[in-house]
Amino acid sequence: MSSLATSIPAGSWILVTGASGFLASHVCLQLLERGFRVRGAVRDPTQSSWLLEGRFKRYADVGAIELVSVPPLGTDGAFDEAIRGVAAIIHTAYVANIVPDPNDVITPMVAGIRSIMNAAIREPSVKEVVFTGSAIAASPLAPGIDNGTIGRDSWNDAALEAAWAPPPYGLSHVMANYPASKVAAEKEVWDFVGRHDLHFNVNVVSPAGLTGEPLNKKHIEGLANWVVHAYRGNKAVMDSLQASFYGDVKDVALIHVAAALDPEVKNARLQSWGHSSHWNEILAILRRLRPQKEFVDDYPDAHHLKLSVDQAESVALLNKWSTKRAKNGWTSLENSIAENITNPYLED
Protein backbone atom coordinates (compact mmCIF):
# COMPACT_ATOMS: atom_id res chain seq x y z
CA MET A 1 0.00 0.00 0.00
CA SER A 2 1.09 3.55 -0.71
CA SER A 3 1.95 6.00 2.08
CA LEU A 4 0.61 8.92 0.05
CA ALA A 5 -2.26 10.97 1.42
CA THR A 6 -5.58 10.07 -0.21
CA SER A 7 -8.82 11.98 -0.65
CA ILE A 8 -10.77 8.96 0.64
CA PRO A 9 -9.65 6.49 3.32
CA ALA A 10 -8.23 3.06 2.56
CA GLY A 11 -10.90 0.38 2.74
CA SER A 12 -13.50 2.63 1.07
CA TRP A 13 -15.73 1.15 -1.60
CA ILE A 14 -15.06 2.39 -5.14
CA LEU A 15 -17.46 1.73 -8.01
CA VAL A 16 -15.79 0.84 -11.31
CA THR A 17 -18.16 0.66 -14.26
CA GLY A 18 -17.45 -1.61 -17.22
CA ALA A 19 -15.22 -3.50 -14.78
CA SER A 20 -14.46 -6.43 -17.08
CA GLY A 21 -12.87 -4.23 -19.76
CA PHE A 22 -9.17 -4.14 -20.64
CA LEU A 23 -8.50 -0.85 -18.85
CA ALA A 24 -11.11 -1.21 -16.10
CA SER A 25 -9.86 -4.62 -14.96
CA HIS A 26 -6.42 -3.11 -14.33
CA VAL A 27 -8.04 -0.20 -12.49
CA CYS A 28 -9.83 -2.72 -10.26
CA LEU A 29 -6.65 -4.68 -9.56
CA GLN A 30 -4.61 -1.59 -8.70
CA LEU A 31 -7.30 -0.30 -6.33
CA LEU A 32 -7.40 -3.67 -4.56
CA GLU A 33 -3.61 -3.72 -4.27
CA ARG A 34 -3.77 -0.31 -2.55
CA GLY A 35 -6.22 -1.50 0.08
CA PHE A 36 -9.50 -0.26 -1.40
CA ARG A 37 -12.64 -2.29 -1.97
CA VAL A 38 -14.08 -2.53 -5.47
CA ARG A 39 -17.65 -2.84 -6.64
CA GLY A 40 -17.46 -3.81 -10.30
CA ALA A 41 -20.47 -2.84 -12.38
CA VAL A 42 -21.01 -5.20 -15.32
CA ARG A 43 -23.90 -6.27 -17.52
CA ASP A 44 -23.63 -9.98 -16.63
CA PRO A 45 -21.75 -10.98 -13.44
CA THR A 46 -21.69 -14.60 -14.58
CA GLN A 47 -19.72 -13.77 -17.73
CA SER A 48 -17.42 -11.53 -15.67
CA SER A 49 -16.82 -14.05 -12.88
CA TRP A 50 -13.12 -14.22 -13.86
CA LEU A 51 -12.81 -10.94 -11.92
CA LEU A 52 -13.26 -13.04 -8.78
CA GLU A 53 -10.66 -15.62 -9.78
CA GLY A 54 -6.93 -15.79 -10.56
CA ARG A 55 -5.14 -12.65 -9.43
CA PHE A 56 -8.39 -11.32 -7.99
CA LYS A 57 -9.22 -14.40 -5.91
CA ARG A 58 -7.45 -13.44 -2.69
CA TYR A 59 -9.40 -10.18 -2.68
CA ALA A 60 -12.68 -11.90 -3.52
CA ASP A 61 -12.12 -14.39 -0.70
CA VAL A 62 -12.14 -11.57 1.87
CA GLY A 63 -15.02 -9.68 0.26
CA ALA A 64 -12.89 -6.82 -1.09
CA ILE A 65 -14.37 -7.11 -4.59
CA GLU A 66 -17.94 -7.72 -5.63
CA LEU A 67 -19.75 -7.68 -8.97
CA VAL A 68 -23.13 -6.02 -9.52
CA SER A 69 -25.35 -6.14 -12.56
CA VAL A 70 -26.41 -2.85 -14.13
CA PRO A 71 -28.78 -2.19 -17.04
CA PRO A 72 -27.66 -0.54 -20.31
CA LEU A 73 -26.05 2.90 -20.00
CA GLY A 74 -29.00 4.84 -21.33
CA THR A 75 -31.42 3.43 -18.75
CA ASP A 76 -32.78 5.99 -16.33
CA GLY A 77 -31.43 5.35 -12.83
CA ALA A 78 -29.06 2.65 -14.12
CA PHE A 79 -26.52 3.20 -11.34
CA ASP A 80 -28.75 4.20 -8.41
CA GLU A 81 -28.27 0.93 -6.53
CA ALA A 82 -24.63 0.36 -7.52
CA ILE A 83 -23.58 3.76 -6.13
CA ARG A 84 -24.99 3.21 -2.65
CA GLY A 85 -22.26 3.71 -0.04
CA VAL A 86 -19.30 4.21 -2.39
CA ALA A 87 -16.71 6.91 -1.79
CA ALA A 88 -15.59 7.18 -5.41
CA ILE A 89 -16.73 6.26 -8.91
CA ILE A 90 -14.51 5.46 -11.87
CA HIS A 91 -16.72 5.37 -14.94
CA THR A 92 -14.99 3.54 -17.79
CA ALA A 93 -18.06 1.99 -19.42
CA TYR A 94 -19.08 3.14 -22.90
CA VAL A 95 -21.58 2.23 -25.60
CA ALA A 96 -19.93 -0.33 -27.86
CA ASN A 97 -22.64 -0.38 -30.54
CA ILE A 98 -21.16 -0.21 -34.05
CA VAL A 99 -24.26 1.03 -35.83
CA PRO A 100 -25.09 3.93 -38.18
CA ASP A 101 -27.80 5.61 -36.09
CA PRO A 102 -26.21 8.15 -33.69
CA ASN A 103 -29.28 7.87 -31.45
CA ASP A 104 -28.15 4.34 -30.59
CA VAL A 105 -24.62 5.41 -29.61
CA ILE A 106 -24.35 9.09 -28.66
CA THR A 107 -27.71 9.41 -26.91
CA PRO A 108 -27.17 6.54 -24.42
CA MET A 109 -23.58 7.66 -23.78
CA VAL A 110 -24.77 11.10 -22.70
CA ALA A 111 -27.66 9.58 -20.76
CA GLY A 112 -25.15 7.40 -18.94
CA ILE A 113 -23.21 10.47 -17.80
CA ARG A 114 -26.39 12.06 -16.48
CA SER A 115 -27.36 8.83 -14.74
CA ILE A 116 -24.00 8.57 -12.95
CA MET A 117 -23.92 12.25 -11.99
CA ASN A 118 -27.51 12.38 -10.76
CA ALA A 119 -27.02 9.21 -8.72
CA ALA A 120 -23.81 10.67 -7.24
CA ILE A 121 -25.63 13.87 -6.29
CA ARG A 122 -28.14 11.80 -4.32
CA GLU A 123 -25.44 9.74 -2.57
CA PRO A 124 -23.64 11.78 0.13
CA SER A 125 -20.83 9.21 0.50
CA VAL A 126 -19.43 10.04 -2.96
CA LYS A 127 -16.34 12.27 -2.82
CA GLU A 128 -14.61 11.59 -6.15
CA VAL A 129 -15.82 10.85 -9.69
CA VAL A 130 -13.46 9.98 -12.53
CA PHE A 131 -14.57 9.57 -16.13
CA THR A 132 -12.66 7.84 -18.91
CA GLY A 133 -12.56 10.18 -21.86
CA SER A 134 -10.58 9.72 -25.06
CA ALA A 135 -7.89 11.48 -27.04
CA ILE A 136 -10.34 11.40 -29.95
CA ALA A 137 -12.60 13.77 -27.98
CA ALA A 138 -9.91 16.46 -28.13
CA SER A 139 -8.50 15.87 -31.62
CA PRO A 140 -9.45 13.94 -34.78
CA LEU A 141 -5.90 12.48 -34.72
CA ALA A 142 -5.94 12.92 -38.46
CA PRO A 143 -2.89 11.93 -40.53
CA GLY A 144 -1.26 14.26 -43.02
CA ILE A 145 -2.51 17.52 -41.50
CA ASP A 146 -1.34 19.70 -38.62
CA ASN A 147 -3.68 18.87 -35.73
CA GLY A 148 -2.33 21.84 -33.78
CA THR A 149 -1.81 22.17 -30.04
CA ILE A 150 -4.15 20.21 -27.79
CA GLY A 151 -5.27 22.23 -24.78
CA ARG A 152 -7.94 22.25 -22.11
CA ASP A 153 -10.53 23.59 -24.56
CA SER A 154 -9.69 21.39 -27.55
CA TRP A 155 -12.63 19.45 -28.95
CA ASN A 156 -13.16 17.23 -31.97
CA ASP A 157 -16.40 18.95 -32.95
CA ALA A 158 -16.09 17.69 -36.52
CA ALA A 159 -16.97 14.20 -35.26
CA LEU A 160 -20.21 15.49 -33.77
CA GLU A 161 -21.11 17.23 -37.02
CA ALA A 162 -20.43 14.07 -39.03
CA ALA A 163 -22.36 11.81 -36.65
CA TRP A 164 -25.42 14.07 -36.55
CA ALA A 165 -25.48 14.66 -40.31
CA PRO A 166 -29.03 14.08 -41.58
CA PRO A 167 -30.18 10.55 -42.50
CA PRO A 168 -30.10 8.26 -44.32
CA TYR A 169 -27.51 6.92 -41.91
CA GLY A 170 -24.61 5.14 -43.54
CA LEU A 171 -20.96 4.18 -43.23
CA SER A 172 -19.82 7.75 -42.54
CA HIS A 173 -22.09 7.79 -39.49
CA VAL A 174 -20.78 4.43 -38.32
CA MET A 175 -17.22 5.80 -38.44
CA ALA A 176 -18.16 9.04 -36.66
CA ASN A 177 -20.46 7.75 -33.94
CA TYR A 178 -17.84 6.43 -31.50
CA PRO A 179 -15.61 9.53 -31.49
CA ALA A 180 -18.71 11.73 -31.44
CA SER A 181 -20.04 9.83 -28.43
CA LYS A 182 -16.80 10.49 -26.55
CA VAL A 183 -16.96 14.20 -27.42
CA ALA A 184 -20.60 14.49 -26.38
CA ALA A 185 -20.10 12.48 -23.18
CA GLU A 186 -17.14 14.53 -21.95
CA LYS A 187 -18.83 17.81 -22.83
CA GLU A 188 -21.81 16.62 -20.78
CA VAL A 189 -19.47 15.95 -17.85
CA TRP A 190 -18.10 19.48 -17.83
CA ASP A 191 -21.50 21.06 -18.58
CA PHE A 192 -22.92 19.15 -15.60
CA VAL A 193 -20.07 20.34 -13.37
CA GLY A 194 -20.74 23.92 -14.46
CA ARG A 195 -24.47 23.71 -13.83
CA HIS A 196 -24.40 22.17 -10.36
CA ASP A 197 -22.86 22.83 -6.97
CA LEU A 198 -21.45 19.35 -6.43
CA HIS A 199 -20.32 17.79 -3.16
CA PHE A 200 -17.75 15.69 -5.02
CA ASN A 201 -14.73 16.35 -7.23
CA VAL A 202 -14.68 15.42 -10.92
CA ASN A 203 -11.70 14.51 -13.14
CA VAL A 204 -11.45 13.11 -16.67
CA VAL A 205 -8.65 10.82 -17.91
CA SER A 206 -8.31 10.66 -21.70
CA PRO A 207 -6.18 7.86 -23.19
CA ALA A 208 -5.46 7.11 -26.84
CA GLY A 209 -4.53 3.56 -27.90
CA LEU A 210 -3.80 1.03 -25.16
CA THR A 211 -1.08 -1.61 -25.11
CA GLY A 212 0.11 -3.99 -22.43
CA GLU A 213 -0.92 -7.04 -20.44
CA PRO A 214 -4.39 -8.51 -21.04
CA LEU A 215 -6.06 -10.03 -17.97
CA ASN A 216 -8.60 -12.01 -19.99
CA LYS A 217 -8.78 -13.56 -23.45
CA LYS A 218 -11.47 -11.11 -24.59
CA HIS A 219 -8.95 -8.27 -24.18
CA ILE A 220 -6.87 -9.84 -26.95
CA GLU A 221 -9.81 -10.23 -29.32
CA GLY A 222 -11.16 -6.68 -29.01
CA LEU A 223 -11.10 -4.30 -31.98
CA ALA A 224 -9.00 -1.81 -30.02
CA ASN A 225 -6.14 -4.20 -29.21
CA TRP A 226 -3.88 -2.51 -31.73
CA VAL A 227 -0.72 -4.54 -31.16
CA VAL A 228 -2.57 -7.76 -31.92
CA HIS A 229 -3.62 -6.39 -35.32
CA ALA A 230 0.05 -5.84 -36.17
CA TYR A 231 1.01 -9.21 -34.67
CA ARG A 232 -1.54 -10.98 -36.88
CA GLY A 233 -0.96 -8.79 -39.93
CA ASN A 234 -4.50 -7.41 -40.04
CA LYS A 235 -3.80 -4.85 -42.75
CA ALA A 236 -7.43 -3.80 -43.07
CA VAL A 237 -7.23 -2.28 -39.60
CA MET A 238 -3.59 -1.20 -39.79
CA ASP A 239 -4.06 0.76 -43.01
CA SER A 240 -6.82 2.87 -41.48
CA LEU A 241 -4.69 4.05 -38.55
CA GLN A 242 -1.02 4.02 -39.50
CA ALA A 243 0.08 6.51 -36.83
CA SER A 244 -1.33 7.15 -33.37
CA PHE A 245 -0.43 7.40 -29.68
CA TYR A 246 -0.12 4.36 -27.40
CA GLY A 247 0.04 4.15 -23.62
CA ASP A 248 0.56 1.12 -21.41
CA VAL A 249 -2.72 -0.04 -19.87
CA LYS A 250 -1.19 -0.22 -16.38
CA ASP A 251 0.03 3.37 -16.69
CA VAL A 252 -3.38 4.62 -17.79
CA ALA A 253 -5.06 2.60 -15.03
CA LEU A 254 -2.69 4.17 -12.49
CA ILE A 255 -3.60 7.65 -13.72
CA HIS A 256 -7.27 6.78 -13.14
CA VAL A 257 -6.43 5.57 -9.64
CA ALA A 258 -4.45 8.74 -8.93
CA ALA A 259 -7.26 10.92 -10.30
CA ALA A 260 -9.61 9.29 -7.77
CA LEU A 261 -7.24 9.27 -4.79
CA ASP A 262 -4.94 12.28 -5.08
CA PRO A 263 -6.39 15.19 -3.06
CA GLU A 264 -4.45 17.67 -5.20
CA VAL A 265 -6.06 16.63 -8.51
CA LYS A 266 -9.23 18.62 -8.99
CA ASN A 267 -11.29 19.46 -12.06
CA ALA A 268 -8.52 17.97 -14.22
CA ARG A 269 -8.69 16.99 -17.88
CA LEU A 270 -5.77 14.55 -18.03
CA GLN A 271 -4.56 13.85 -21.56
CA SER A 272 -2.92 10.44 -21.11
CA TRP A 273 -1.94 9.42 -24.62
CA GLY A 274 1.49 7.85 -24.11
CA HIS A 275 3.96 7.48 -26.99
CA SER A 276 3.55 8.84 -30.51
CA SER A 277 4.24 5.95 -32.86
CA HIS A 278 3.87 4.53 -36.37
CA TRP A 279 3.23 0.91 -37.31
CA ASN A 280 6.80 0.61 -38.63
CA GLU A 281 8.13 1.21 -35.12
CA ILE A 282 5.73 -1.32 -33.65
CA LEU A 283 6.65 -3.85 -36.34
CA ALA A 284 10.35 -3.33 -35.58
CA ILE A 285 9.68 -4.09 -31.90
CA LEU A 286 7.68 -7.20 -32.81
CA ARG A 287 10.49 -8.47 -35.02
CA ARG A 288 12.96 -8.06 -32.15
CA LEU A 289 10.65 -9.84 -29.74
CA ARG A 290 9.67 -12.64 -32.15
CA PRO A 291 12.61 -13.09 -34.58
CA GLN A 292 11.26 -16.47 -35.70
CA LYS A 293 7.91 -15.00 -36.82
CA GLU A 294 7.21 -13.32 -40.16
CA PHE A 295 5.38 -10.00 -40.06
CA VAL A 296 3.88 -7.77 -42.74
CA ASP A 297 6.22 -5.42 -44.61
CA ASP A 298 6.95 -1.91 -43.40
CA TYR A 299 4.94 0.97 -44.80
CA PRO A 300 6.92 2.93 -47.41
CA ASP A 301 6.00 6.35 -45.99
CA ALA A 302 6.27 6.34 -42.20
CA HIS A 303 4.96 9.43 -40.47
CA HIS A 304 3.82 10.54 -37.03
CA LEU A 305 0.73 12.59 -36.26
CA LYS A 306 1.40 16.30 -36.40
CA LEU A 307 0.24 17.76 -33.09
CA SER A 308 1.41 18.93 -29.73
CA VAL A 309 -0.18 17.66 -26.52
CA ASP A 310 0.82 18.45 -22.95
CA GLN A 311 0.89 15.25 -20.88
CA ALA A 312 2.98 16.70 -18.05
CA GLU A 313 0.26 16.36 -15.41
CA SER A 314 -0.35 12.71 -16.32
CA VAL A 315 3.36 11.89 -16.25
CA ALA A 316 3.72 13.65 -12.89
CA LEU A 317 0.94 11.47 -11.47
CA LEU A 318 2.63 8.34 -12.84
CA ASN A 319 5.85 9.27 -11.11
CA LYS A 320 4.13 10.27 -7.86
CA TRP A 321 1.91 7.22 -7.50
CA SER A 322 4.16 4.49 -8.91
CA THR A 323 5.07 1.74 -6.45
CA LYS A 324 6.49 -1.05 -8.62
CA ARG A 325 8.18 0.72 -11.49
CA ALA A 326 10.98 3.15 -12.18
CA LYS A 327 9.68 6.68 -11.80
CA ASN A 328 10.50 7.85 -15.30
CA GLY A 329 7.11 8.39 -16.89
CA TRP A 330 5.50 6.13 -19.43
CA THR A 331 6.39 2.45 -19.64
CA SER A 332 8.46 2.01 -22.79
CA LEU A 333 6.55 0.95 -25.88
CA GLU A 334 8.79 -2.11 -26.22
CA ASN A 335 8.15 -3.32 -22.68
CA SER A 336 4.43 -2.73 -23.06
CA ILE A 337 4.27 -4.60 -26.37
CA ALA A 338 6.23 -7.47 -24.83
CA GLU A 339 3.52 -7.83 -22.17
CA ASN A 340 0.84 -7.50 -24.84
CA ILE A 341 2.08 -10.56 -26.75
CA THR A 342 3.55 -12.64 -23.91
CA ASN A 343 0.45 -14.08 -22.30
CA PRO A 344 -1.59 -17.30 -22.34
CA TYR A 345 -4.28 -15.83 -24.60
CA LEU A 346 -2.40 -14.97 -27.78
CA GLU A 347 -1.52 -17.76 -30.19
CA ASP A 348 0.84 -17.42 -33.15
Automatic annotation (TrEMBL):
InterPro entries, per database record: Epimerase_deHydtase (IPR001509), NAD(P)-bd_dom_sf (IPR036291), NAD(P)_dehydrat-like (IPR050425)
Q: Where is the NAD-dependent epimerase/dehydratase domain?
A: 14-264
Q: Which residues form the signal peptide?
A: none
Swiss-Prot/TrEMBL keywords:
Oxidoreductase
MF-aspect GO terms: oxidoreductase activity, acting on the CH-OH group of donors, NAD or NADP as acceptor
- Pfam families attached here? Epimerase
Superkingdom: Eukaryota
| Annotated family | Belongs to the NAD(P)-dependent epimerase/dehydratase family. Dihydroflavonol-4-reductase subfamily.
* PANTHER family attached to this UniProt entry: ALDEHYDE REDUCTASE II (AFU_ORTHOLOGUE AFUA_1G11360), NAD DEPENDENT EPIMERASE/DEHYDRATASE
Q: Under which name does UniProt file this protein?
A: Aldehyde reductase 2
What is the phylogenetic placement of the source species in the record?
Answer: Eukaryota, Fungi, Dikarya, Ascomycota, Pezizomycotina
